[in-house]
């Protein structure tokens, strides 16, 4: 990946935007779109495979295990590719995903989400079906809940302590001694097996280039090593320590070789957001949305497309000059408004649009800001191989 991408300033927020290098990708959009109703989501299987192979090679080079996260695509086909065909060692974000992958023969599953009482019965069923099923907690109340449930059901939970190294979402704060006490509580519990630490490292999001990503990753690794040392002082050893986030794992630092595993997820598809941070190139984005022009509003200098928030999501970065997405081969188009089924498109620079270039029925190709969010809007994905549309449809699991 380029470590010095061209960037341009785009707002008073001092955010940076990598110049869009529109490159003709495999096949043509017109050929793929000809037989498809829009809006629809398309996945380039060849690009997914290349992304998966690259991350497998990254983990091998670091000397760590790759435990890919399934939350972006939630499909069996992509899960097989991410695990290199083994179906072993994944992370899921919902119990619906856990059931889905268990039914498909996957094993060694981490339920990477804060656990609550209402989910324990289903977790127990999964644990009984799998050779290895692991859950997370980050607080004393969670430990007590797990211990009480396991004691009353004559079982043992495999537990990781989730640790927050700066993202401030979930996880025990890495710099707090109280977090060490939570680990001690897990170790002391008669029906819990302490497996180690789980770091998300979402603080590698929203940066400007690979150098910034690496700087944050190195900071995260220092925090991780300090926390591990604090645990060692209490006589606690960590069998497994994993760090996630696609940006951090896409441009890894050497210090990550001290981990036992990495667990990124978005890298299978990537998206325009990851590109803007320098985590990938445009050619790595493996999914896109096809949409058609449905009308014009010349008095307001915009046209409408059949892509609303139910097709793309409402995920938005106000600093982006192109609005909610990137349009392929249309650097001066901006998707500035979304209603349920419609999108409004104008020019980036405010110049008058030539509506004759965008007749009703014209197909446009959109690279999503956030592929996880877009994928969540679709009940199936069309698939291309070698730039040619296939009859395959990848069907993701839905629900929680």
Structural write-up:
The chain is an alpha/beta fold. The chain has helices at 29-33, 45-62, 76-82, 95-103, 120-129, 140-152, 177-188, 210-233, 246-250, 272-277, 309-312, 371-375, and strands spanning 7-9, 16-18, 40-44, 65-66, 88-92, 107-114, 133-137, 157-164, 172-173, 192-199, 240-243, 261-262, 287-297, 302-305, 325-327, 333-338, 343-347, 363-368, 381-385, 388-394. The strands form 3 sheets. Strands 3, 13, 14, 15, 16, 17, 18, 19 and 20 form a 9-stranded mixed β-sheet that branches. Strands 4, 5, 6, 7, 8, 9, 10, 11 and 12 form a 9-stranded parallel β-sheet that branches. The longest helix has 24 residues, at 210-233.
- Low-confidence segments: 1-17, 20-26
In terms of structural class, how would the helical and strand content be classed?
alpha/beta
Radius of gyration: 22 Å
The helix count comes to 12
Beta-strand content estimate = 25-35%
Quaternary organization: single chain
- Which geometry do the CA atoms define? elongated
Q: Please give the alpha-carbon distance between the first and last residues.
A: 35 Å
Query: How would a textbook summarize the main sheet?
Result: 9 strands, mixed
**Secondary structure tally: strands:** 20
Helix proportion range: 25-40%
Average residue-wise pLDDT: 93
């Amino acid at each position: 990946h380029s470590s010095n991408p061209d960037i341009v300033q785009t707002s008073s927020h001092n955010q940076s935007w990598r110049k869009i290098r529109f490159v003709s990708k495999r096949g043509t959009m017109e050929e793929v779109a000809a037989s498809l109703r829009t809006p629809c989501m398309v996945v380039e299987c060849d690009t997914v495979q290349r992304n998966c192979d690259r991350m497998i090679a990254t983990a091998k080079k670091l000397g760590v295990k790759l435990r890919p996260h399934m939350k972006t695509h939630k499909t069996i086909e992509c899960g097989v590719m991410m695990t290199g065909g083994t179906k072993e060692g994944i992370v899921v974000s919902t119990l619906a995903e856990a059931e889905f992958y268990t039914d498909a023969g996957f094993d060694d599953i981490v339920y990477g989400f804060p656990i609550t009482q209402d989910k324990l019965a289903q977790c127990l069923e999964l644990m009984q079906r799998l050779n290895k099923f692991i859950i997370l907690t980050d607080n004393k109340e969670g430990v007590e809940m797990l211990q009480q449930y396991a004691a009353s059901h004559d079982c043992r939970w495999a537990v990781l302590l989730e640790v927050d190294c700066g993202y401030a979402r979930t996880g025990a704060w890495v710099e707090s001694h109280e977090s060490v006490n939570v680990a001690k509580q897990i170790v002391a519990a008669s029906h819990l097996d302490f497996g180690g630490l789980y770091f998300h490292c979402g603080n590698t999001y929203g940066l400007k280039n690979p150098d910034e990503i690496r700087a944050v990753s190195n900071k995260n690794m220092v925090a991780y090593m300090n926390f591990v040392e604090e645990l060692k002082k209490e006589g606690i050893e960590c069998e497994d320590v994993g760090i996630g986030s696609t940006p951090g794992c896409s441009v890894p630092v050497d210090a990550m070789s001290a981990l036992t595993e990495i667990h990124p997820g978005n890298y299978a598809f990537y998206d325009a957001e990851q590109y803007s941070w320098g985590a990938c190139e445009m050619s790595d984005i493996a999914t896109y949305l096809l949409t058609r022009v449905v009308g014009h509003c010349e008095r307001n200098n915009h046209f409408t497309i059949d892509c609303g928030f139910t097709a793309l999501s409402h995920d938005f970065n106000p600093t982006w000059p192109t609005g909610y997405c990137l349009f392929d081969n249309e650097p001066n188009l901006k998707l500035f408004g979304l209603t349920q089924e419609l999108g409004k498109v104008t020019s980036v620079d405010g110049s008058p649009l030539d509506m004759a270039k965008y007749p009703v029925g014209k197909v446009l190709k959109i690279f999503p800001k956030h592929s996880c969010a877009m994928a969540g809007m679709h009940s199936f994905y069309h698939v291309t191989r070698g730039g040619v549309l296939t009859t395959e449809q990848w069907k993701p699991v839905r629900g929680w």
